[in-house]
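Our working data are protein records whose layout never changes between entries. Getting from the letters to the tokens is the skill we practise here. To make this concrete, we reproduce a full record directly below:
***
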Amino acid sequence: MYIVMISSECAPVAKVGGLADVVSGLSRELEIRGNAVEIILPKYDCMRYDQIWGLQVTYQDLWVPWFNGAIHCSVWFGFVHGRKCFFIDPHSGDNFFNRGAYYGFTDEALRMAFFTKAALEFMLKTNKRPDVIHSHDWQTALTPVLLFEIYKYHGMANQRVCHTIHNFKHQGVAGENILWATGLGRPDYYYAKDRLGDDFNHQAINFTKGGIVYSNFVTTVSPHHAWEVLNTDMGYGLGHTLYLHRNKFGGVLNGLDYDTWNPEIDRYIPHHYNVNDLEGKYRDKEALRHRLLLRQEYKPLIAYVGRLDYQKGVHLIRHALFYSIWNGAQFVLLGSSPEGGINDYFWHLKHYLNDNPDCHLEIGFDEELAHLIYAGADMIVAPSMFEPCGLIQMIAMRYGTVPIVRAVGGFVDTVFDKDYSDRPEEERNGFVFNNPDYQGIESAMSRAIGLWNLYPLEFKKLVLNGMRHDFSWNRPGQDYLNIYEYIRA
């Protein structure tokens, strides 16, 4: 099968979040299974150019219709860790992708609408006719709209679109200028509620809604999150549209890149180990303590790695830190916040706890340290308010670190509670709580710390159960191939 990914991110060349990992990991898995995969990306000035091999111009004169004229583009080609990638490079005073950052601009909707239009125009002009086009998140949600309303009349009638929504909170709500820019026009037609019309702003179109309505199949990044967005307010207003199109909607759990996250070969950790020999993990715990100046003492080490914001349950992360110290455990935090106030608060906390030998806060992000924390910690907390999929729990289990999570999104599909799960004992791998409050997280942490202290052999069973579970792209890769075959048929 021939598949083209259209995305605003791809790891490691242009990465802001999990979207980038999905595009890279899924593409690799599909190629391993004998499919031809190409990825189309914007050519940002801030990309990791050191991660691209053989970058060169492959198409010189791409003219993309835009408003009443056209914008001239070059298209570059290069390999990103073996993946075939094309980069759209517009030559325009708009300077869409030469701004020193991937996102965060007032004309975000125009930038991404242009990229999507240019990607389709490139496929049209170069006679690329993939079996399936896979678009991702709001940034490229206009792909099926443009394909169905414009490009199918110019020789692209047989292409099918699978659209994946990674985060329902960001939907791409914009004005009618997008319609005139892309050549869609006809505001009265597209403002209809059964097309692109936003349900809450009658003067706006909604990119993601268009992606749901027009694509042949829609996925989100875990089965439980698919249920949540259909049945709770986690759909951020799109629940009704999803319900109308529920026959072409489902959840596919994200996979984990086992080349990057593997304690047997990880270049960032000093001691390697596997499910049959955990000695290296215990030595990594000593190395982590040594690096962060924590005392070497027989007690559990609990960690948090990731963003510090509302979604991640920042108030519960803070509470977990103090609860750990109060209950004879150590706590390590690695992360930062996009919100200045939260960052300032954790810097204050860092200074307040600076001399505590059982606690370390690292404000920022450090790839090497992240790997060492996953390897050296006994447990990891992830008390998210919502979590479409989550990688923190999968990475933790890969490294034999027991997750303590809230029962939302992908956590429900991957973490099975030691005491309360209906799964067989050999599948139970962590601790789960429901309510997003102090009592909720304390209930799970007290059970985890108690098990570590009083029943170490039972705790080790959880460690091994997590390490044995397959979180690779193997199963999700097959799930997506099944979807592709379904929409082709």
Summary: The CA atoms of residues 416 and 423 lie 7 Å apart. The first helix runs from residue 18 to 32. Residues 279-468 form a domain with the Rossmann fold fold (CATH 3.40.50.2000).
